[in-house]
Amino acid sequence: MSSPALSVRSAHIVLDGHVVAENLSLDFAAGRTTCLLGRSGVGKTSLLRHLAGLLPGTAPAGPVAYMAQRDLLLPWLSVLDNVLLGHRLRRDETARRSAEPRARSLLAEVGLGDRLDALPQTLSGGMRQRAALARTLCEDRQIVLMDEPFGHLDAVTRFDLQDLAARLLEGRTVVMVTHDPLEALRMGHEIRVLSGNPLAPGPLIAPGGAVPRDPADPELLALQARLIRELRHGS
C-alpha cells in the first residue's frame, strides 16, 4: 500500500483563543519524512494536532499514528500491553494477537525486550519514551505524526532510535516536529522552518543523501549553522 501525500489548505488554527495559523497552505510529500522546525511556542504542535484531526472542527487525513510529546503510557498496563493499546481500544482481539509478534520485536529493537511485563512506573523517562515509540511504530500506519519523539533520550540512545525509526518508517508519509536542527537534518527528507505570529512556513529545505544522515558530514554541519541562524532571527 502506497503512502499518501498530505495537504493543508487555507487552514485557520486557533488554540485557547490565540490564532496560531491564518489561511495556511502547506504540502507534505508522499512517502517522505518532513521535519517541522521552529522555536518554542510558534505552533508546531498545533499544526501537527490539526493534521491528526485532534483540534475542534478538524478530521485526520486518514488512518494515522500519532506520537505526542508525553509518552501517555497507561500505568496499569504492562509495557507490552501499552504497545498493543491501539488494538485493545479498537476491541479487535484477532488483530491484537496478530500484532503481538511485531510488538515484541519492536520492544527488543528499542532495548526493552526484557521489560515486556514491567509497569510504566518502573521505567526511566527515556525507557518510557522508547516504549511510546514502539507503540507508534506498532500501529503500522502509512501516515505517522510525531511530536518530539526523541526529546527525552540521552544523545547516544537518541541517535540509535533515529536510525531505527528511519529504517522502520521508510516509504511512509511522516511529519515530525523537533526543536533540534541536527535531528531535522538527520531525519528529514524535507525541512520546513516555521516562524511568525501567526505562523508561516519558510522555503522548503531538502538536504542531499539518504536518511538517517551522518551528523559529522561537513555539509550537514554547514546546514545546521544556517538553520540556527534562521531560528535565531525568526520571530
Strand order of the largest sheet: 4-5-6-3-7-8
The number of strands is: 8
The helix/strand order is EEEHEHHHHEHEHEEH
Question: Assembly state here?
Answer: single chain
Concise summary:
With 235 residues, this protein is an alpha/beta fold. The chain has helices at residues 44-52, 79-83, 85-89, 93-109, 125-138, 155-168, 181-187, 218-233, and strands spanning 6-15, 18-28, 33-38, 64-67, 143-147, 173-178, 190-195, 200-201.
Question: What report would you give on this structure?
Answer:
The chain is α/β, with parallel strands linked by helices. Helices cover 37% and strands 21% of the residues. It is built from eight helices and eight strands. The chain has helices at residues 44-52, 79-83, 85-89, 93-109, 125-138, 155-168, 181-187, 218-233, and strands at residues 6-15, 18-28, 33-38, 64-67, 143-147, 173-178, 190-195, 200-201. It has a six-stranded mixed β-sheet, with helices on both faces. A two-stranded antiparallel sheet has the order 1-2. Helix 4 crosses helix 5 and helix 7 (181-187) crosses helix 8. The longest helix is centred in the middle third of the chain and has 17 residues, at 93-109. The N and C termini lie far apart (40 Å). The mean pLDDT is 92.
